[in-house]
Amino acid sequence: LIELEKEFNGLRSGLKCVENELEYQKSQPVQSGDKFVSVVSQFITVASFSFSDAEDLLLEAKELSLRAIAAYE
User: Fold this and answer.
1) Residue whose C-alpha is closest to residue 12's, from 45, 36, 48, 56
2) Which end of the chain is more exposed for a tag (fewer CB within 10 A), N or C?
3) Which residue range is the domain that position 65 belongs to?
4) Which domain of life is it from (predicted)?
5) H/E/C letters for each residue in the chain?
6) pLDDT tens, position by position, for the chain (73 residues)?
7) How far apart are CA 43 and CA 60, in angstroms?
8) pTM higher than 0.70 for the full model?
9) Are 15 and 44 in contact (CB under 8 A)?
10) For residue 15, how many C-alpha atoms fall within 13 Å in the half-sphere facing its CB?
């Protein structure tokens, strides 16, 4: 689970970088036909919900693993 937590931290960091880039792009003049802000906004919405669901599953897995370890102690 430790490696999985490291992966989640990397994903969290990457998602934050995408959010920061989106905020930067929102502050720039819009170019005709540029769909970056629209597409990335949708991506962040979906990715954030999916990431949150996955984090919940990770927490559940950690709790179950701690209970299993405690049962053998």
Assistant:
1) 48
2) C
3) 2-71
4) Eukaryota
5) CHHHHHHHHHHHHHHHHHHHHHHHHHCCCCCCCCCHHHHHHHHHHHHHHHHHHHHHHHHHHHHHHHHHHHHCC
6) 889 999 999 999 999 999 999 999 999 999 999 999 999 999 999 999 999 999 999 999 999 999 999 998 8
7) 26
8) yes
9) yes
10) 17
